[in-house]
Amino acid sequence: MKPNDFSALSDAELLEFAKQNQPSPLVDAFIIGFLIGILIFAAAVNGWGLVMLIPLFLIRQFLKKPKRHEAMVSELKKRGLE
Q: DSSP character for 46?
């Protein structure tokens, strides 16, 4: 979901989305570290290849998560729902 899509949601949908998408920085940090470990292992064993793209994409998705959460919180504050 793009940050500008939050304005299209109704109040009830936005509150439900906020309830389902609570941040979990410890879990995210663990998963990112695990994926970096996979990247290092794959680089040591095979060099650069297709296997490297999947963890890179997943790391990118995990790093975009806080930006999406900030956009959701700002939309909640703008509507006075927080």
A: T
Contact between residue 75 and residue 7 where contact means Cβ atoms under 8 Å apart: yes
Structure-token pair, residue 72: 């959701």
Express each pLDDT in 35-80 by its tens digit.
999 888 888 887 777 778 888 898 988 888 888 888 888 888 888 8
pTM: 0.65
- Domain extent for 44: 3-79
CA-CA distance, 10 to 27, in Å (whole number)?
29
Q: Show the tokens assigned to 49.
A: 């290849």
Give the total number of structural domains in the chain: 1
